[in-house]
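Hi Y.,

Following your request, here is the sequence exactly as I used it, all 141 residues.
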Amino acid sequence: MRRAPAVALAVLAAAAAAVLAASQAPAPDRDGPAFHALLSGPASYPGGVHEGSFTADAGTYRVSFVPSGSSPEMLGVSVSGAFEFSGTYELVGTRAETAEYYTWRYDGPDVFEIPEAQEVSVVIDPGGQTGGSVSVFITRE
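Below is the corresponding structure, written out as C-alpha cells. Let me know if you'd prefer a different format.
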C-alpha cells in the first residue's frame, strides 16, 4: 500500500520537472538569418550561380559573409522582389601581425531596405570561381 503514494509522488515530480524544463526552454530564434547559403565547390552553383528565395517582412536587411582564403575573389549578390538590390563584393585579406595568418572579409554594400512583406529571390554569382567555400547570410536588423 505504501508503494502507490510513492509512485504517484514520482509521477507528479516528473511531470513538474517536465513543465519546469519546458518553461525554461529558449524561445524560437526570430532574429536568426532570413537567408543562409553555405557554398562549397561547383555543385553549389548549378548553372554557374546559386539561387534561393525567402519570405521577407518590411525592414532593413544586411548581407554578411563567413569567407576563407579559398573563397571566390569576387562575389555578386542580388536580392529582388518589388525592389532591386545588388552588390559586388571583393575578398580582402588582412595579415595578422601576431602570427602568419590572414583574416578574410568581403568589401561591398551590405545594407538594403525591403519596403513591404514579399517573397524575394537571391542570386549569388561567384564570377566563375566555384572552388572555395563561403557562407552568405541575409539578416534583418
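The longest helix spans residues 3-24.

Thanks again,
Q.
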